[in-house]
Amino acid sequence: xxxxxxxxxxxxxxxxxxxxxxxxxxxxxxxxxxxxxxxxxxxxxxxxxxxxxxxxxxxxxxxxxxxxxxxxxxxxxxxxxxxxxxxxxxxxxxxxxxxxxxxxxxxxxxxxxxxxxxxxxxxxxxxxxxxxxxxxxxxxxxxxxxxxxxxxxxxxxxxxxxxxxxxxxxxxxxxxxxxxxxxxxxxxxxxxxxxxxxxxxxxxxxxxxxxxxxxxxxxxxxxxxxxxxxxxxxxxxxxxxxxxxxxxxxxxxxxxxxxxxxxxxxxxxxxxxxxxxxxxxxxxxxxxxxxxxxxxxxxxxxxxxxxxxxxxxxxxxxxxxxxxxxxxxxxxxxxxxxxxxxxxxxxxxxxxxxxxxxxxxxxxxxxxxxxxxxxxxxxxxxxxxxxxxxxxxxxxxxxxxxxxxxxxxxxxxxxxxxxxxxxxxxxxxxxxxxxxxxxxxxxxxxxxxxxxxxxxxxxxxxxxxxxxxxxxxxxxxxxxxxxxxxxxxxxxxxxxxxxxxxxxxxx
Length: 507
Fold this sequence. Notes:
By secondary structure, this protein is of the alpha/beta class. The protein folds into 3 domains: 7-204, Vaccinia Virus protein VP39 (Rossmann fold, 3-Layer(aba) Sandwich), CATH 3.40.50.150; 223-455, LmbE-like (Rossmann fold, 3-Layer(aba) Sandwich), CATH 3.40.50.10320; 462-506. It is built from 19 helices and 15 strands. The chain has helices spanning 7-15, 27-44, 63-68, 82-91, 130-142, 157-163, 170-177, 220-223, 246-260, 283-304, 323-332, 349-363, 391-398, 402-405, 410-420, 440-445, 452-487, 490-494, 496-506; strands at residues 51-57, 72-79, 98-102, 115-121, 144-155, 182-190, 197-204, 228-229, 237-241, 265-271, 310-314, 338-342, 369-373, 383-386, 432-439.
């Protein structure tokens, strides 16, 4: 644990940077923003208009403010740092619906106003003690209109302690929100190092609705399927691969199954795959590596029989989430009804960015489905595809990527992953690929659906625990009333001397 942090000096030093906390360039921050916005969409409903009145607590450099402002007819922004407000206001001067205020969360900010949506992220952990935290939480919660939504995000307690902060992280602050608000959604957002371990939770004032999620006693086959399928129906398929080889590692069996069923398959390889750790500026070597990996992908395509892959040749390890990438994916989806993309839970930043772009593109294309595949991080699937008949073909395609197998035994690791996926399957299934499949309609009706595998059981168990706590409280209340009635009864008073004598004898 670090020593106590001087918060004022720390924030002043951060604000001296053009992009404090790398909010505009960090993949972790991009995913955190996407989760917050999806929680807002989940609350508002499909096709709902913008929130009438929004409140953002802490604007930093205004990066998220620029995303939040279009979601609100009017947005009130509060930050304790005058420099932060000045910088963000200058950057967003063209947004006429934003009001700015320099204030602490412990003061009477936004006096007399209530809001339909409140976003407070990575602010409360800087407060000096638990008493101040509780007071700030109560003040912010009082600004939430009935039926409104509050989205809270923070690093977990162990992280904020390691930073040397005297305040509280996610778990402690969540207990404070629970005193007056009802939790509606929760997601974990983890980045590439320990300091990016964050919880994002949404709350509402309406205490009557049931929590979302599955039953506490979720059957095993609702967590991981206990039956496999031999095909995933489709009329035309698009496979999005971040690098040459991901299309085979992640869904080579599915591709082979589609080809056998005479379903057209288009594979797009997004990056050139030229990056190698430790090499900087070796342009000629990178070009050669990119050509080698393209040739390997073409050879694998011939093995699987789907034709020629399309190469976008974007820089390896430098995919950027945003409209340009989403537009490229959308353009490639013409006539497509099933899109394969890496899971959002993958480790590699290119994998996660391409996954996020695929999610947004599918949302905008009614009638399409998205199948998340896994490579470096097992996901919680809702479909297992039996690839036993084509497993040898998949391994033959993997063997085409000789340059990659020289550095790591991906062939053995992927074979082990596909074998592991038969754990819940009976019969003669010797290899399976795991997918999480979701439609455009499901994503628009529930924007958090693809996050829910991380959260729904936790939410459901929380709901169950709360119900059990309420039962115990009612039981305790009934027993206390019975005890009080007994103590006030005539027989209790008459037998008091006898009980006193019994206590003396026991000594």
